[in-house]
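Why should sequence recovery work at all? Because a backbone constrains its sequence more than one might expect. Tight turns favour small or flexible residues, buried strands favour hydrophobic ones, and helices have their own preferences. The token representation captures these environments compactly. In the example below, the structure is given first.
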């Protein structure tokens, strides 16, 4: 039973990591195909160094998303993508600078959604790493018990 639960948890972590990767890959590609519109949107929000930051964002989103999707360096990549999401949220979804209305509500919703994405970006790799350590612990405990048993047998 426990093996089935552990297998199900691993499957859910892989699926979740893949979906999180896609969440970054698709907007990264959209920024490439809609370069001009994205640059104009960034300019409207007062983002400095647009060409440099847009290229950096695209590289981080596509590269980081692919890395998450494939399971490569997930802890580091998720941390970087969480930071990127925070910066994007502060610059692009600044609902506090808008008058009440539909646009403010839309930007508030995007900001809160990005907070959730940041939380998942931080929690998912931590959960996977914790699960990996937990899976190793029983084996390590067996080795420690064996070593202790062997020592006490020798001293008797």
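From this structural description, the recovered sequence reads:
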């Amino acid at each position: 039973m426990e093996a089935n639960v552990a297998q199900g948890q691993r499957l859910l972590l892989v699926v979740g990591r893949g979906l999180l990767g896609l969440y970054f890959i698709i907007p990264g590609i959209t920024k490439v195909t809609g370069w001009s519109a994205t640059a104009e949107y960034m300019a409207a929000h007062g983002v400095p160094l647009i060409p440099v930051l847009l290229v950096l964002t695209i590289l981080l989103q596509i590269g980081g998303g692919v890395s998450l999707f494939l399971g490569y360096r997930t802890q580091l990549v998720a941390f970087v993508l969480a930071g990127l999401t925070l910066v994007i949220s502060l610059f692009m979804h600044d609902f506090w600078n808008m008058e009440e209305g539909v646009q403010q509500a839309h930007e508030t919703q995007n900001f809160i959604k990005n907070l959730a994405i940041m939380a998942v970006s931080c929690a998912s790799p931590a959960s996977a790493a914790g699960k990996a350590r937990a899976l190793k612990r029983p084996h390590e405990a067996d080795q420690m018990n064996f070593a202790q048993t062997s020592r006490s047998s020798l001293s008797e």
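A few observations help interpret the result. The CA atoms of residues 95 and 104 lie 5 Å apart.
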